[in-house]
Amino acid sequence: MSASQTNARALADTPVARVWLQRAGPWLVAAVIALAVPLFMHSSHALTMLSHMGVMVIFALSYNMLLGNTGLLSFGHAVYFGLGGYMAMHMLRYIEATGFGLPLELVPLVGAAGGLLFGLIFGAVSTRRAGVVFAMISLGIGELVSSSSLMFTGFFGGESGLYGNRTVPASLVGAEYSSGLSTYYLVAVWAFIAALAMYLLRKTPLGWMANAVRDNPERAQFVGYSPQMVRFFQFVLASFFAGLAGGLFIIVDEIITAETVGMVQSGVVLLSAYIGGILVFIGPVVGAILVVFLESELSAITNAWLLYFGLLFVAVVMFAPQGLAGLALQWYGAWRAGDWRGSVAARLYAAGSMLVAFLGLVAVIEMAYHLFQHWNPEQPMGLFMFTVNVTNALPWLLAFAVLAAGIAVFIFHARPVMQRAIHASGGDR
Amino acid sequence: MLETIVFSLLNGLLYGMLLFMLSSGLTLIFGMMGVLNFAHASFYMLGAYFAYTIGLYTGFWVALFLAPVAVGLIGAAVERFGLRQVHQFGHVPELLFTFGLAYVVEELVRLFWGNVPMDYRVPEALDFPLFSLFGTNYPAFRAFVLVVAVVMFIGLWVLLKRTRAGLIIQASLSRPDMVSALGHNVPQVFTWVFAFGTGLAALGGVVGGIQLVTEPGMAFMMGPIVFVVVVVGGLGSIQGALIASVLIGVLQTFALSVDWSLAELGALFGYAVSQESFFATLWYLDTTRIAPILPYLLLVLMLIFRPRGLMGKRET
């Protein structure tokens, strides 16, 4: 609170142009990065991954309109993503069949409208209460919709899903969407617009009231707002943006299956937003990019990637509930304020001991996967820089020793040293 | 017709009892700690896998006791070293912790036992037809599952209502501060309740793994339905869980065996719907395809119209 007040005071003293630069700066940087990234990653695989990141950024930000801003824990947000995607896909197919003149750039809006529509329907019945009741209703609706994909095979396309072709519709700007690059830029532009819109929505009275309803619905009611209506509006808007993400998703992939409305997808968006951090705007952005990156790259390196993913999430929930971006900002703030002076070395020491433990854990997990899942566990495996035979006891002993040593050093030496250093330097935050 | 009804009732009861075994532990944990344990079905899965593996060495009867104890101990460790740490952050992180745990457990099961279903079978001592009805045999193992569930319900009821331990548990549920002031270690009570609840889920897994299937997806399959049972029954209510379990079990089994659709119902009253009409999909939707969504429909309707569930004392 006080930080923002001092910020506001500092802003009041600076010229208008600088204020605008400070506000717009992060957005300009983000735009430049988004535009420049394809210069360095231009394989079709990388471009698809980047496009998925853009889609996921919108989706995770829309999720955070519920969880972070309004305090609504949803287990069925993929419903609006998936149904929006299906709406956009039906539009794409309709354009292909009839030559209807909707340009491709606007097809995601059809998805957004679809998300909005279903958000209105399901939001009306589910936002009366927050907390566990809302979470359970969202779970029920999620299961309801994903189960009904087996019933309404005409709409959902059955097991194989629906296909479309993004090169058929005309383009507003005369672009050819046959390449991954132009598709990426389409996604990037939409992601930028959507992120900006969601950021600005936080600054509206609705956005502030959503925070109030999250923190104390009773008091919000005394101010004269209906918590139910605030939740409902936030829910509908979140569904709108989720539908937009779904509409972009079908343009990137040109296929949609019933999995997009399913529980797994709902889980992934929840994990993304939470891992990044739900109380800072940038959190879900970081989380979405990280999760898509792990999904795409880690799965190519190791079979255990889902396990790492789960462990990462559990670790964030247990030790960094403010999320990775939240943690980074918190550290940055402390560092800027000089709270780290005199304790940097001790902090690095603690981080180093955790890193050792982490490497030991990775070794154990990788060897376990090799031992249990390889068709011939006797075959030597590459591990870091070594080649090990997992049927021998020695590598196991070493790996567990490294893991145990890292944890032991952290608990019995590095952490006390760090706490003493922080205490001695006067910063106790 | 009578045959269908009798067997649907019997099978529905069986499925309901399996659901009850899972949901009783979950509702106990929620009532006590306010934690909706997303990983509950994962403990059910662990119960099945542990029983299978232990059973390879000791036979089924020893595994029937050892597996729930082992899973209960894991549950205690999870509560002690995981949940208690997260507890300070509030209920949502607690819920998310169990959510992440469910992912981790599934991956670990895939790691150690592989992706294919286990060959976990009815023990020989129970592999005979108990009685024959309308020319169809009723396997003894199903009766055994029913017996286990009933014994569990009675045992649970006696434990909670008729013993000193149950008294302390119930008191910690409503007035933890007072119980703590009387000299009881409330966090330790929580740990044991969590261990006990997960052990019950594991017991469900020991018999459920045989009756249904033992594969890494089993937790994901059962998880949401167990939530439905607990919410519909009323969070924290064991009797409610029993009623809701049987209700959902019978409902789903009937929908699967009856195989009707609105169109047939219409035809019965002389109202024909053409296959080409706009809402034909809805009219010709048969009950077997509706069956999977029935529990969730029930859940949503229940939460909208009666959020405290059938037997719940307070709103969730």
Please tell me what the overall shape of chain B is.
Answer: globular
**Highest CATH level, the class of the largest domain in chain A:** Mainly Alpha
Q: Can you tell me the CATH topology of the largest domain in chain A?
A: ABC transporter involved in vitamin B12 uptake, BtuC
User: How many beta strands in the DSSP annotation of chain B?
Assistant: 2
Uncertain residue segments of chain B:
none
Order of helices and strands of chain A: HHHHHHHEHHHHEHHHHHEEH
CATH architecture of the largest domain in chain A: Orthogonal Bundle
Count the DSSP helices of chain B: 14
Helix fraction bin of chain B: over 70%
Q: Spatial order of the strands in the main sheet of chain B?
A: 1-2
Oligomer: heterodimer
Please give the radius of gyration of chain B in angstroms.
Answer: 21 Å
- Spatial gap, N to C terminus of chain B: 41 Å
Structural class computed from helices and strand pairing of chain B = mainly alpha
Strand order of the largest sheet of chain A: 1-2
The total strand number of chain A stands at: 4
Percentage of residues in DSSP E strands of chain A:
under 5%
> What Rg of chain A, in angstroms, do the CA atoms define?
24 Å
Q: Work out the strand percent of chain B.
A: under 5%
> Mean of the pLDDT scores of chain A?
86
Report on the architecture of this protein.
The complex is a heterodimer of chains A (429) and B (316). By secondary structure, chain A is mostly helical. Chain A is built from 17 helices and four strands. Chain A has helices at 2-13, 16-40, 44-70, 78-98, 107-126, 131-148, 153-156, 180-202, 205-215, 217-223, 227-253, 263-276, 282-301, 305-319, 323-336, 344-373, 394-424; strands at 162-163, 255-256, 381-383, 386-388. In chain A, the strands form two sheets. In chain A, strands 1-2 form a two-stranded antiparallel ribbon. In chain A, strands 3-4 form a two-stranded antiparallel ribbon. In chain A, a hairpin with a 2-residue loop joins strand 3 and strand 4. In chain A, helix 9 (205-215) crosses helix 11. The longest helix of chain A is centred in the last third of the chain and has 31 residues, at 394-424. With 316 residues, chain B is mainly α. Chain B has a two-stranded antiparallel sheet with strand order 1-2. Chain B starts with a helix and ends in an 11-residue tail after the last helix.
